[in-house]
Design goal:
The protein is an alpha/beta fold. The chain contains 8 helices and 13 strands. The strands form 2 sheets. Strands 1, 4, 5, 6, 7, 8, 9, 10, 11, 12 and 13 form an 11-stranded mixed sheet that branches. Strand 8, helix 4 and strand 9 form a beta-alpha-beta unit. The radius of gyration is 18 Å and the shape is elongated. The model has no long low-confidence stretch (mean pLDDT about 95).
Length: about 240
């Protein structure tokens, strides 16, 4: 490992790891000192250990502000979903895990399949600037996205406004569906949210190191071990 890698990835002497607290699959709890705990924080700590430096966590309540902060110099690596809209300022590794995204609909809805959601007049509740919001914004032709702040906000919007569908990660929708009488989760997925490690795009040597690290973490079984350690259902090691 060259000195350039450590200098780029830990210019302050500590690896500052941006963590998206909204992803309940990757951040499953908090330590007594308030630090996030889960698959993403543990992966960041493993990267710091490989560099021979300490880790400090930079928490964000939602992924959008985390991505925006890539140009502000407040974090060195960000654990966030890969999205073209984010790639202008962030250099991503290959994904290390993926999570299915689909829809929840009310029990009396005429919508039976994912393809039937994209129709004129269909209104979809969604967490603003989530990875699946960015995906659907590019790909929907007819349905309308109605945005709320955060995952809880999108659920409240779906219920409160009587919208036609709620877009979300399947593991979260499994807990949402039991709260609404006769609600249904549609089979299949409209996308898979693919979580990766990113670094500001001007850190060329650091980005190459991270790509190699993530590839090895998948091949060695480290990612599988972290998923098992935190007993997370709904996370798949990315192909």
């Amino acid at each position: 490992m060259s000195n350039n890698v450590v200098t780029e990835l830990a210019p302050t002497g500590t690896l500052r790891a941006a963590i998206n607290l909204a992803n309940f699959l990757l951040v499953s709890s908090r330590a007594d000192n308030g630090d996030p705990q889960g698959v993403a924080p543990d992966l960041a700590a493993a990267i710091a250990d490989s560099l021979g430096v300490g880790v400090s966590y930079v928490p964000f309540e939602r992924p959008g502000p985390l991505a925006d902060a890539a140009v502000e110099g407040v974090w060195d690596i960000g654990l966030i979903a890969v999205e073209p809209a984010r790639a202008e300022h962030i250099e991503f590794t290959e994904p290390y895990v993926e999570i299915e995204a689909t829809y929840l609909v009310s029990g009396d809805s005429d919508i039976r399949t994912i393809s039937e959601v994209d129709q004129p007049g269909v209104r979809i509740a969604i967490a603003a600037r989530s990875a699946y919001d960015l995906y659907l914004s590019r790909n929907l032709q007819h349905a309308e996205l109605i945005r709320a702040e955060g995952i809880d906000g999108s659920f409240d919007l779906f219920v409160g406004e009587g919208l036609d569908a709620l877009a979300g990660l399947r593991p979260r929708l499994l807990s949402d569906v039991v709260q609404i009488e006769n609600a249904r989760i549609l089979d299949g997925r409209f996308t898979a949210v693919r979580q990766a490690v990113g670094t500001p795009s001007d850190r060329t040597a650091g980005a190459a190191y991270l790509r190699d690290f993530v590839a090895e973490a998948k091949a060695s079984g480290l990612i599988t071990e972290l998923i098992a350690r935190h007993q997370v259902d709904g996370l798949l090691v990315a192909s």
